[in-house]
Amino acid sequence: MNTFAFIIHILTLLSTALMAGLFFSYSFSVNSGLGQLNDSAYLLAMQSINRAILNPVFFMCFFGTVILLPLNAYLQYDGRLTINFSLFGLSAAFYVIGLFGITILGNVPLNDALEAFDIGNASQETISGMRETFEGPWNKWHSIRTAAVVISFLLLSIASVLPKR
């Protein structure tokens, strides 16, 4: 493996691990804590989190991994359809479709609807309805994308340590 391919491989492992850790941790800590809040506090907290996560470090890892995983698979290709190359490709597919695609098509529209919701001028009934409309679907999509990024990292890790075949 040449130096460029090695650097891309290490950056791919790092960025995928960071994303898997972020989504996994959110699923099993933040979501549990948020779920215990009353409706108004829950919606305000989610609005705040959705704004805070839109930062350069998150964008670099989130979008960078979309580029790095397929690039890494391509750089690992040696002209043969090997188990390693197949695992690298599957890892990329799980991330691009399962994390990135679901985020863009599932979670972002829900986040946008929540951002547009004026909690300060809403009745308690409307606030409760918004939480019901938001929380279940958002958590469902989040669980799917969390599984996808963890699988992506697992496949990438296995391909990284398997002898080339």
Automatic annotation (TrEMBL):
TM stretches of this protein: 56-75, 87-108, 144-162
InterPro entries the record matches: Anthrone_oxy
Cited Pfam families: Anthrone_oxy (PF08592)
Keywords, ordered alphabetically: Membrane, Transmembrane, Transmembrane helix
Source organism, top-level taxon: Bacteria
The name this protein goes by in its record: DUF1772 domain-containing protein
Source organism (scientific name): Flavobacterium rakeshii
